[in-house]
Every structure is written in C-alpha cells, then in structure tokens.
Amino acid sequence: MNATLSAIIDILTKACGRIVLALLVFIIGKYVVKKLMKLFEKAKFINDMDATASKFILSAIKIILYIVLAVSIIGILGVPMASVVAVIASCGVAVGLALQGALGNLAGGIMLLIFRPFSVGDYISAAGGEGVVQEISMFYTVLTTVDNKKVTIPNGSLMNANVENFSSEDNRRVDLSFNLGGGNDIEKVREVMLGVMNANEKVLKEPAPFASPLAGIPGGMQYTVRAWCKSGDYWDVYFDLQKDIAKAIGDAGFSGPAPATTVVMDK
After folding, report:
1. CB atoms within 10 A of CB 21
2. Per-residue model confidence as pLDDT tens digits over 166-202
C-alpha cells in the first residue's frame, strides 16, 4: 500500500513539475516571440521590402515561431512526438477538410503576394468591400473604408473576385453629367463647361478636358463632362467640378429641362 501511494505521489509530482515547467516555457516563450518579432520588424531585409511583402512575411514568421513554441511545450509535457505525428497523420484528412477554407485563404494570400493585384495603401473595391488596403496577412486582407470602418476580407474570396484597383494608375478620369434644356446654344454650353475645367488647377491639360451633348432626355439634353486628374486628386476634382460647373451654368442663364406635361383626357 505504501509503495503504491509513493508511486502515485511520485507520478503526480513529476506531472505537476512538467505542467509548471510547461507554463513557464509558455510565458517565457511568448515574451521571446514578441521580442523576436520586434527585431524582425527592425531588420534591414524586412525594411527593404515594400509594405505588402513585409507584412505578409512577418505574419508567416510569427505563426512559425508559435508553432515551434507549441511543439516545445508538448515535448515538455512528456507526450511522445512519434505519437503526436501519428495522431496528426491519422487525422490529416479530417483536419484538411475542416481547414479547407483556411488553406484556401492561405493559398490566396500567397497568390496575392506573387501577382500583386494591389498593394498596401491602394484604394480597392472587391468581394463586397471597398476601402484603403491596410494589411495583407496570410489569411485575411484588412481595408479601411472612407468613413473609417474596418473591413476584413478572406484572401480566398479576393482571389476569386473581380478587383477594382483605383490607385494602380497615376491618372484617373472624372465623369459627370448635367441635364439642361434643349433650347440652349450647345457650343456656348460646351464653352462654359470647358472654361470651368481648364480653370481648375488639378485638372490635367493632357488628355484635354471634354464636354459634349450625350443624349436627349425628356424636355432637354444631357451633357457629359470628362476631365483627367491625378489619382490622389480624384475626389477633390469630382466635387469641385460638380459645384463649379453647376454654378457657371446658372450664372450663364442656361435653362434647365422643361417640366414634363401631363395630358388628362376628360370624357
């Protein structure tokens, strides 16, 4: 009886010792991982990369370090690594099915890094989200919307979606339309619209601004206005032209579309 009790106490003592050691390794290991990540973030080879690649690689390094920490803790707890490998192998199919979405996101992240449809800092619209790209991690891409909301999109969804990158080109075209009466002098209308666009310092001279009647509408004519600008100036030019052309049209005395006439047949 005493021998059995001594054996049980010995086993519990060893188990408690391993658990305490494992907890210490976890706490110290977590601290070491954070310190290592800070060193990697300051490393020259990381800083020489662009923001998209560096954030992706840092995310991968962090996951690898935590995997190493987890394996170390399992070893300290006395679990035979051969048994762990056997369990992982036997559960491989089930784990693969369970992580199918995550693996798809991982593959999507790698493809995004290789093909670069967008980079950190670009303004994009894709997979139901729109905003400035803040981060491309191994599994998700994070956007910030114009009204400062955070949108997280799985990388797998991005790779299977149409991506509109509004920042990829140096210049963008602003397209506006205005409805005026059909009796206005078309050339004078065009002259006023072109004058407003040429007076705007952010509107590029080449390609030249464009204004023309587009189509007839009930009671008048629709005019289209097109002006090129730097991508970063797009919204400034958009709102400036919207306001300034509307004011110039009013100051010039051009009439708006004639109101629709309703004919009622009285028996």
Report:
1. 13
2. 988 999 999 999 999 988 999 999 999 999 999 999 9
> Which residue has 């009013």 as its token pair?
250
For residue 186, the 8-state DSSP code is H
Closest of 101, 156, 104, 163 to residue 129, by C-alpha = 163
Q: What is the pLDDT of residues 14-63, one digit of tens each?
A: 667 778 888 888 888 888 888 888 888 888 777 777 676 777 788 888 88
Count of all residues that appear for the chain in the document: 267
Look at the alpha carbons of 12, 17, 21, 24 in this order and tell me if their dihedral is positive or negative.
positive
What is each CA distance from 129 to 41, 55, 118, in whole angstroms?
29, 21, 14
Q: Enter the pTM of the model.
A: 0.61
Structure tokens at 255: 């009439």
Q: Which residue has the tokens 């390094």?
A: 61
Distance linking the first and last C-alpha atoms of the chain: 115
Across the strands, what pairs with 179?
222
Cβ–Cβ < 8 Å for 141, 135: yes
